[in-house]
Amino acid sequence: MVHATATSSTPSVTRALVLDDALGGVGYTPMVRLDRLAKQYGIKSNLFGKVEFMSIGGSVKDRIAKRMVEQAEKDGVLIPGKSVVIEPTSGNTGIGLALACAVHGYPLIITLPEKMSLEKELTMRALGAEIIRTPTAVASSSPLSNLGMAKRLKEAIPNAVVLDQYNNPNNPLAHEFGTGPEIVAAIESLPQNKKVDVFVAGAGTGGTISGTARVLKKHNKDCIVVGVDPRGSVLALPESLNSLDEGEDGFYQIEGIGYDFTPAVLSREPGLIDHWVKVADPECFKSARDAMKLEALLVGGSSGACIAGTLAWLKASPEHDVEGQNVVIILPDGVRNYMSKPWFAEGLMGREVGADLAPEVTAQINKVIAENNKYTEKPNGHVSTEDKVEAAVSALADTMKNVTVGTRGVNGVGKSADF
Predict the structure, then answer these.
(1) Is residue 115 within 8 Å of 89, Cβ to Cβ?
(2) 22-59+180-243+251-335: CATH topology
């Protein structure tokens, strides 16, 4: 178990209006009331989302990446102009590290399991990182895993440093100094009930839930901390919660939470994490879509998992859902990283026109679409939605040869367009 204690004075919970660099935009995320979700599910408690995708890199992992890099530099572990950073990650820590390494000038190599989204890889590449994909289905102890690959690279590359989010005490400390105090400041600004009664977070490395819980337990000794873990992961306690049904293979699509081993930074100290809830992919993705539709929050799948876990825990007993109590949920990342994933894309693209509208409105939409289809299907140079790009450009060019273009646009005074 890794546990370092935050010893500095109360951290700042506000952001400067002018930032010295992009890393100044890490953290300081808003807390948003989730009243519409609460109403939809018949929840009496006050629900609040800590919206971590509004950190500059798009996730809660920006916080640990910034702290790990800057502390390693202070400690002489990272040497400017010499060190190469390597990190195994499910993606969001990699994006945070790519930000930090870009600002501090370190080369970065990320080892990333194949199941993680293309969007994450492209974002890291855009920030200058090198990406090596590894098999998803192998055990974390395998040399073929992203952890094993990072270890092999460290041994082969001179001056390589693995910051190791799974064992690095600066992971939970980032939340003791940042996330936790921000939540306390936000809750204490409320006109009534200025305390966090329930705190819910997913567990990946465990740094977020462990570091934040320590702050919230000091803020309110009676605060209940609930950990969320995907089915197929082994982080929940008691261990019996992690058993699978007959025929269940243990694979889960949710990214960023859950592991087949227990990271050292996930605290097992008694009384810190009070309850665990297991969640499955379908309910996680549904909760994410509900948050988008009802609260206009473009959350990712792990945020959906945290919402689903919260709802499951509140509904598990009448004693859990108490009118007036404050329930704070970490929303770790947004949907930017998952737009090509079937759980997001297929649900939107396959939705019927007007599915959520009144029948008379849907009828008018379908009428306009039908009229538009007649137009696009006409010959004589009009472009059809079925045309290939080359054919469409050719048809448009033929049409525009007979159209005059002037300073006021199409059909204004001017010479004939020449393509």
Answers:
(1) no
(2) Rossmann fold (3.40.50)
